[in-house]
Amino acid sequence: MWQFILRRLLLMIPIFFVLSVIIFSLIHIVPGNPIDNLIGPGMTKAHEQKLIEKYHLDKPLPVQYGIWLANLFQGDLGTSIIEKRPVAELLRHHLPYSLSLGLTAIALSFVLGVSMGIISAAAKDTFIDHAAMVVALFGVTIPAFWLGLILILIFAVWLNLLPVSGSGDLLSLILPAVTVGLGGAGLIARITRVSMLEVASRDFIVMLHAKGLGKKAILLKHTLRNALIPVITILGLRIGWVLGGTVTVEIVFARPGLGQLLITGLFRRDYPVIQGAMLLLAMGIVLGTFLADVLYAVADPRVRDQHQ
Amino acid sequence: MKKTIIQVCTMLLAACIFLAPVQALAEKVLYAAGDPNELGVTTFNPIKVELSHEAMNLIYDKLIEWGSDGNFYPALIASWDISDDGLTWDLALRQGVTFHDGSPFNAEVVKWFLKEMETGPSAYMVGAIDTVDIIDPYSVRLNLKNPEPNMLFNMSQPFMAVPSMAAYKKYGETFGIKQIVGSGPYKFESWSPGNELVLVKNPDYTWGPDLVQNKGPAHIDKIVYKDTKEESTRFLELKTGKVDVVFSVPTMFISKIEEDPALKIVRMPGTDLFHMVMNTQSPPLDNELVRKGIALAINQKSITKNVFAGAGKPAYTYLLDTLPASRVGEKNEIHYDPEASKAAFEKAGWKTGPDGIRQDKDGNKLVLTLLAKNESSYRRSAEVIQAQLAEAGVDAKITLMDPSSIRAHYKKGEHQLAVRSYEWENADILEWFFNSKRMGYPNAAMWHDNESDYLMHKAMTRSRTQEERVENFKAYHIYLLNRYIWAPFYQPDTVFGIGRRVVLPEKRLVRKFMNIGILDWDIQ
C-alpha cells in the first residue's frame, strides 16, 4: 500500500513539469499583454517600456519561463502585474472561499447523489425511480448560472431567508453550495444507479440472496460498496473541477474564489496570476485523482493487490 | 445530546438574525456595489496608480476640485494666481489640514509631492513644472517650462491626490497596498481583493472643499464597496436592501428600479463616448471619401434608441459634449446623412452592384471587417451598424473578441473597422488617439498626418490660458472631424441605483456621483 502511494506521489513530479510548460505556453500564445491594461491617456512610452522591462516581458519566452520556474522553486509565485500584490498572497486570500464552497458542494452532491442512486436502484422502474432520475437529469443539465439566480430570487428576494451574495458567514454559503452541489448530485445519482444495478446482477449478489441474507444488508453492505468505485473516480475528478469550475456561481454570488481570480486575470492577461491560479487548480485535479486512486485501493482490495 | 445540538444551532441562528440589525443601527454604514473592473484596482498609492479606484476620492484630498458647472474650486490649494505669460503659479495652501497619521499638510509636502509625481505613470501631469519654490510654510511658487493651463484639470484628478509624505517615505514599496494614508474624509480600514473595501470616517476632517455644504466630518460612519461582477446580483442586492448604491446600472434594469417606489435612479452626464474607428491605412479606408460615406451612413439616433433604450444621447463629435472643445458648430459635426453618404461613395468610384454591395471599377466588392468587444453593448452596436452599413452598400463582417485580443490586433494593423468606447473628460484625449507617434494602439485609426500633428502640438504645449487652449483644441478637433477618421455614435449617461435609506443633498456641484460629495450624504 505505502509503496503504491509513494509511486503515485513520485509520478506527480513529471506531471508538474509538463503542466507548468503547458500552462506557461498557453497563456503566452494568446494575443494581448497585461501592460496595455495599465496604459492610460497621457502616459509616456518610457513608462510603458519601464513596465515591460520590470516584468521581463521583453525577454524571449523560454527565458521568461526559466525565470518563473526558478522563482517558483524558491517559493515565489511572482507579483500580480495589475494588482501589484504577491500572487501567493492572492491565492491564499481566494483559496479558502473556493475550498469551503467546493468541499460543501462535493459533500452535498455525494450524500444527495448516492442516496438518490440507491433509492432509484432499489425501486428500479417504479415511479420513484423515474422521478428521481428526472430530478437528476435536471441537476446535470440546468446551467448553474441560471439555477443560482433562481435560488436567489426564491430564497433571498421572495422569502428573504438567505443573503443574495457575500462570503462572510455560513448563511451565505448555503445557496452557492446548493447550486454547485445539485449539478454534481445529478451526475452521481445516475452513476450510482447504473453501477448498483450492474453489481446487483452479478453472481455473488444472487448467491447472497440465495443464502437468505436480508435485502437491506445486501443492498447497503455488498452492492453499494462495489458500486461506489466509479463514484469515487468521479468525485476525485470533481475536487479539482469544483475548485476552479465554479466560476459562474462565484460570479453570481459575488464570492471571491479562485475561479473569479482566474477569469479576471485572464481578461487582463495578468500572467503571474493566471499561471499561479492555473497551476494550483491543475495540481488540485492531480491531487484529487491521486486521492481517488488511494480511496480505490481502500475500497477495492483487488486494486491494492495489483500493485503489490 | 441531539437536543443540545439543536438548541445551540437555534440560538446561533437567532443571534445571527437579531444581532445584524442592532449593529446596523449603532452606526451608519453605506454599502456600494460595482463591477470590480469599473471600480478600478492596482494600488491606492496616487503617485504610482494606473487604474484609480473611486475610493481614492474619499481617502485622499485633491489639490483642486472640478465642479459640474465646469469651474475649478479650492481644495487643498486655497487659492491660485497664474501670471499673464502662464509661467508662474502662486499657490496659497489650506491651513490646518492633517493626514490620517497626524502629519501636517504644508508647502514642504507639496514640493516633495510634485517632485515625487515625476517617478510615476502620471508624470506628464506635472511635466510642465520646472522648479518649485517654498515662499512660506503655506505658500509655494511653481515655475513652469511652458504654459500649461490644463494643470488645473490635472490637479483635480485622483491621480494627483496627495498622500502623507511621512507615511510614504516610511513605508516605501508597500505604501498604497498595505498602508494607505491620505487626508480625506474617510480612512482606509481593510481591503479584501475581489470582495470588499472598507473605509471609516475621519472624525478630525473639517476642511471639505467649497463645492460641498458640509465641511466635515462626514455623516456616514463607514463605507463598504462590494465587488459584485454580475449585474443581476447587483440589482437584486439593491432590491433586497443589502446595498444602498449600485454603480453603472445597465439599461435593462433602469425601468425595474424606477418601478420600485423605494428605489431611485440618478442620472449623471456620462464620461464615455462610443465610436467606430476606421483604419486609415487599410484600403479602401485610406480614401477619405470612403470613410465619409461610412461615417455618414451611421444613424446615431437609431442606435441610441434601439441599442441603449435612450439611456444617453447620440454623439456627433470625437469629444464629450460637456467639454468646450466639442462645440465645433453643426457643419463640422458628423450627422447621419444617407444622401451625402451615397454621394461620397459614388465620387470615390464605389457604385452599387447587382447584389446591393458597392463595387469599384475593377469589380472589387466593398467588404470590410468589423471588430467589437464581446460584451452586449458593443456586440449589439456592431450588429446595428452592420445593418446600417448594409443599407449603404457596405458588407461588414463582425468579429467579436476580448479587449486584450483586440488591442493585439490593432498593434498588427490588420483591422479595418472597430466599435469601441473611451472614458476621458479632457480634450487632450485627441492627442492620445490621433498622435502619429502612437500608431496601432492607442492610435487604432493608424492616423498619420503632419498638419494634424502640428495642430496637436500647438494645442498641447502652446496654449497660455484656458481660453486659448479651448480654441486650439477646437481647431485640432475640427480638422480631425473633417477627415472622417471615426464615426462617433453614442454618449451614455452614467446611471446609479439608489436604495431606500440614502438621503442625497438637493443641490450637487460635485462632478462625479459619490466622490467628495459624500460629505453631504446621509443615511436614514
- The DSSP helix count of chain A reads 13
Poorly predicted ranges of chain B: 12-24
Instruction: Report the principal-axis shape of chain A.
Output: flat
Largest sheet of chain A: none
What is the end-to-end distance of chain B? 45 Å
Q: What is the helix content of chain A?
A: over 70%
Percentage of residues in strands of chain A? under 5%
Cα gyration radius of chain A (Å):
24 Å
Number of helical regions of chain B: 16
What is the succession of H and E elements of chain A? HHHHHHHHHHHHH
Q: Strand share of the residues of chain B? A: 15-25%
Overall strand count of chain B: 23
- In terms of structural class, how would the helical and strand content of chain A be classed? mainly alpha
Indicate the overall shape of chain B.
globular
Write out the strand line-up for the largest beta sheet of chain B, numbering strands in chain order.
8-9-10-1-11-21-12
Helix content of chain B: 25-40%
As a whole number of angstroms, the C-alpha radius of gyration of chain B is 26 Å
The greatest interface between two protein chains, and residues involved on each side, is:
A-B, 46 and 47 residues
What low-confidence regions of chain A span 5 or more consecutive residues with pLDDT below 50? none
Q: In summary, what is this structure?
A:
The complex is a heterodimer of chains A (308) and B (524). With 308 residues, chain A is mainly alpha-helical.
Task: Describe how the helices and strands are arranged.
The complex is a heterodimer of chains A (308) and B (524).
Chain A: H1 2-29, H2 45-54, H3 61-73, H4 87-122, H5 127-141, H6 144-158, H7 171-200, H8 203-211, H9 215-244, H10 247-252, H11 258-268, H12 271-299, H13 301-307
Chain B: H1 2-26, E1 29-34, H2 36-39, H3 56-59, E2 64-66, E3 72-74, E4 77-82, E5 88-93, H4 107-116, E6 129-136, E7 139-144, H5 151-155, H6 165-171, E8 186-192, E9 196-201, E10 222-227, H7 231-239, E11 245-246, H8 251-259, E12 264-268, E13 272-278, H9 288-295, H10 300-306, E14 312-314, H11 338-347, E15 351-352, E16 358-359, E17 367-373, H12 376-391, E18 395-401, H13 403-412, E19 417-423, H14 429-434, H15 450-461, H16 466-481, E20 486-492, E21 494-498, E22 502-503, E23 522-523
Parallel strand pairs in B: 1-10, 1-11, 17-18, 17-19
Antiparallel strand pairs in B: 2-3, 4-5, 5-7, 6-7, 8-9, 9-10, 11-21, 12-21, 13-19, 13-20, 14-20, 15-16, 22-23
